[in-house]
């Protein structure tokens, strides 16, 4: 089992599993097996983005974490498309938070793009 580290009072696995291929190369059959293997190894930190596999990655991750929402920590990226303006950041964040079925996102990444107004 992976030893957890504490970050700001939150117990996190030292490894984060990227879900970029959930619903893509890792199809709907392989993705749950990958998630289960991560959990068996003690991984509780998963990374995704609203653009991964056309949204399938987030949809699958949402299904997997539903049974243990308070023990899984999710990092995500927003505003990959449409610019990094406030309106787009809010819209992509809100849509993805809803897709994940979470009240909050643990870690939010913003790509290094030029900021645009609004």
From TrEMBL:
The keyword Amino-acid biosynthesis does not apply. Pfam families: Aldo_ket_red. SUPFAM superfamilies: NAD(P)-linked oxidoreductase. One of its GO terms (molecular function) is oxidoreductase activity. Residues 14-110 form the NADP-dependent oxidoreductase domain. InterPro entries: AKR_Detox_Biosynth, NAD(P)_OxRdtase_dom_sf, NADP_OxRdtase_dom. One of its GO terms (cellular component) is cytosol. Keywords: Oxidoreductase. It comes from the Bacteria. This is Aldo/keto reductase family protein. It comes from Sulfitobacter mediterraneus.
